Task: inverse folding
């Protein structure tokens, strides 16, 4: 079975300060991991993906995430928050061993950016 | 950049009525999906579709639900007799390949059952 835990339901940062959104996963075999972002009244946009290549993955809009197998984590970071980063962020896992293609979503983290 | 498009953006329907949600996946994609998000809850997988048949479905996807790709471009989700608990945001997604190929999502259809 596969699952994802997003450790914070809400994160609030000031503009220009670093962002850290935490994600831990559980997977019986080699996982592929994704971060998606959802702005209000919009769909889910892919930020970045990890698929067993480099463990440090760079995505769009200055975001990156590091896959740490020993910690079963895939935290999302950004050095400097921008007001436009305010949105809901979802950590997502798919396990390659099961043959399933269904994504398993975390419960989401709402990022607020204060001016 | 190619997009997945969904129509309508908001659908209001009386309980017990049939509803069809429409999606146009990215044109060269081969795998298609429906997910839903009940207000305040996680995004949940409903069904995946490949080669004109369902390849996987969740326990949510019962006999009231069906999917179809009627004309090679549209991908539809039908709910035969809607219930209050079907109220949710429904997202369509498509992917170029299976496995760990990223799924690209539409903006969703908000379904409100009265």
Result:
């Amino acid at each position: 079975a596969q699952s994802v835990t997003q450790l914070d339901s809400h994160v609030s940062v000031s503009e220009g300060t670093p962002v850290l959104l935490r994600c831990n996963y559980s997977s019986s075999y080699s996982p592929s991991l994704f971060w998606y972002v959802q702005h209000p009244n919009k769909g889910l946009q892919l930020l970045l993906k990890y698929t067993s290549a480099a463990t440090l993955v760079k995505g769009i809009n200055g975001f990156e995430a590091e896959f740490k197998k020993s910690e079963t984590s895939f935290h999302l970071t950004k050095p400097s928050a921008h007001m436009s980063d305010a949105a809901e962020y979802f950590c997502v896992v798919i396990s390659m061993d099961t043959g399933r293609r269904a994504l398993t979503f975390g419960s989401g983290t709402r990022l607020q950016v204060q001016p | 950049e190619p997009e997945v498009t969904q129509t309508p953006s908001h659908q209001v329907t009386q309980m017990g009525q049939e509803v069809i949600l429409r999606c146009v996946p990215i044109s060269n994609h081969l795998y298609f999906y429906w997910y839903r998000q009940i207000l305040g809850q996680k995004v949940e997988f409903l069904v995946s579709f490949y080669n004109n048949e369902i390849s996987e479905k969740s326990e949510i996807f019962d006999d009231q639900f069906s999917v179809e790709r009627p004309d090679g471009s549209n991908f539809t989700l039908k709910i035969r007799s809607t219930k209050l608990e079907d109220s949710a945001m429904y997202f369509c997604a498509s992917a170029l390949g299976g496995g760990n190929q990223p799924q690209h999502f539409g903006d969703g259809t908000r379904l409100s059952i009265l």
Summary: Chain B has no helices and eleven strands. Residues 48 and 54 of chain B are 6 Å apart (CA to CA). The two ends of chain B are 37 Å apart (CA to CA). Chain B touches chain A at residues 4, 6, 31, 33, 35, 41-45, 48, 55-56, 58, 91, 93, 95, 98-100, 102-108 (CB under 8 Å).
